[in-house]
Amino acid sequence: MRAVKRLSAEAIALVLATVIFLIPFTLMLLTAVKDQAQAADLDFSWPADWRIVQNLTAVIEARDYVLLRAYVNSTILTVASVAFIVIFAAMAGFVLQRRSGKLGSVAGSLVLSGLIIPPAIVPTIWLLQALGLFKTLPGLVLVEVAFGLPYAVLLFRAFIAAIPRELDEAAMIDGCTGLALFFRVIFPLLRPVTITVILTGSVAVFNDFVNPLYFTPGDENATVQVTLYNFQSQYSTQWNLLFMDIVLITIPPLLAFVFFNRKIVAGMTAGAVKG
After folding, report:
1. Which among 125, 129, 264 has a CA at the least distance from the CA of 204?
2. Pick the residue with more confidence: 270 or 248?
3. Apex 87 CA angle, 83 and 91, nearest 5
């Protein structure tokens, strides 16, 4: 009886999740291939005139091919930010796990507070202006790294807890200390959680809208999410082009989820169980 109830609950949850995902996704696809007049209705009607190529071309050519520049900017931003997050978070997680004490507890509390305390936009802008990094990609990379580190540190710290300290001691006896100990002995063992951090961090940075909007205004350093503004105005929104842009922006994260969802779950589960 319990098995039947459990299967029923799982089936209901699966159906609800499918409906919640498919309804907006279907509306997005249908609107993206309509003309501007029919797209303004925002309904599930079949397109009277399929404008796939026309809408795609219009989105790419909008504002001197800003979408192509935005894809380049988003790629650079994502790769640089995730690389720094992985390296710094892995090192910080190793130190916090191996060196317990009052200082470690304080540092752990600060890391946890990074997940709880909301970001301060205006002071961050002042700081970037003082450093000469406001409205630049390097400045935005620093912001993304700062916001992404706490979550990654907690994952690495939980996973490193499963690695025996005897391994560190054996490597130190062989003369491997400091950075060599970490990068030659510990870091290769962190492959599952590293993959998880890379995938989740890449999707988070690529899909980020607020930080690029605040810290890199303008078309020169625009990211793909910011290009959604190109097809909105006060009086008339080009819904067909807006949704076509959303489709193009959604493709990379969706493909990453489809092909690597098992690795994401495996890395997070391993860290949770072993920590």
Report:
1. 264
2. 248
3. 165
In this structure, are residues 196 and 263 in contact, taking their beta carbons and an 8 Å threshold? yes
Tell me if 107 is assigned to some domain. Answer: yes
Q: How many domains does the chain have?
A: 1
**Residue 118 CA: distances (Å) to CA of 111, 121, 143, 173, 209:** 13, 9, 13, 44, 16
Model confidence over 68-84: pLDDT tens digits?
999 999 999 999 999 99
Tokens found for residue 267: 């890395």
Quick check: 212 and 71 in contact, CB under 8 A?
no
Residue type, 46: W
Asked if pLDDT for residue 161 goes beyond 60, the answer is yes
Residue 25 belongs to a domain? no
DSSP assignment of 176-212: --HHHHIIIIIGGGGHHHHHHHHHHHHHHHHT--HHH
Asked if the structure places residue 170 within a domain, the reply is yes
